[in-house]
Amino acid sequence: MKQQKPTESELEILGILWEKGASTVREVHEKLAETKDAGYTTTLKLMQIMYEKGLLTRDASSKTHIYAAAVSQQETQQQLLSKMIDTVFGGSASQLVLQALGHHKSSDKELDQIRQYLNDIEKQQR
Amino acid sequence: MKQQKPTESELEILGILWEKGASTVREVHEKLAETKDAGYTTTLKLMQIMYEKGLLTRDASSKTHIYAAAVSQQETQQQLLSKMIDTVFGGSASQLVLQALGHHKSSDKELDQIRQYLNDIEKQQR
DNA sequence: ATTTGTTTACGAAGATATTCGTAGATGTTC
DNA sequence: GAACATCTACGAATATCTTCGTAAACAAAT
Q1: I need a surface site. Which of A8, B32, B94, B118 has the fewest CB within 10 A?
Q2: How far is CA A121 from CA A35, A77, A116, B51, in A?
Q3: What confidence tens digit (pLDDT) does each residue in B29-82 have?
Q4: Which ipTM was obtained for this model?
Q5: Chain D: nucleotides under 7 Å from a protein CB?
Q6: May I ask the CATH architecture of the domain A1-91?
Q7: Interchain proximity A117–B98, CB inside 8 Å
């Protein structure tokens, strides 16, 4: 049972739910409104559709429903990364890594994490 | 003059043109057909639209037109990476890097390239 | 209990993307 | 040059995504 690919708008909503956890439509909408302008019912409709598609779960026990992401952030990341590496980076994951490191600031701590990870790989190979 | 965002299908075509260089519709279509099935005129139409949008250039001097990507691979990569980091990786580029390294095989040579890059950054900071 | 506000449900319009049939132009082969 | 193949152009159908108006249910406030 493979997850179907979320659309652009759906991804924005998933992003919010991954970050904030289970939320009401209102909460998601407020957050969305910070960077985008759309009516409340638009957000509602999107979330209802996502629920039907199985991208979200919802608790309808009270009048105001509570929605949560039904797909994991990591799984979705993998899916999208794979596609992107394939079509846009000519199949080379390392090319993507270099691009990402080159143009998007990372903290020292994060860079250390990456170094650590590379070291671990190296060790495994011996 | 900002490049408009290519659609999913358009990206596939761009990917082929980046890899193979300037090509005819037929050539692109053959390549596309390996992984997808669509009619020839569908590919043609797509490429015509991309030309109108400015995503492709074309040489129409002979009957069979020759198309080429009008947007750079790198610029497009940046654009898509930024968006993806933002919505799917909670703004953390390093998180994306770790995911990419973790799930997509890279050769030793490529990993060395990445280590080298990290070393360079480290040096710059002192 | 009427007004006011918030919520869900529904349907449909509008926008965008994808697909392909058909026609006409051009080139190729016999 | 007639038959055949290949190409572009065009238009339109189809599919998908996005947006929002409206109505009904419900709750809270006066």
Answers
A1: A8
A2: 39, 21, 9, 44
A3: 999 999 999 999 999 999 999 999 999 999 999 999 999 999 999 999 999 999
A4: 0.89
A5: 6-12, 16-22, 26-27
A6: Orthogonal Bundle (1.10)
A7: yes
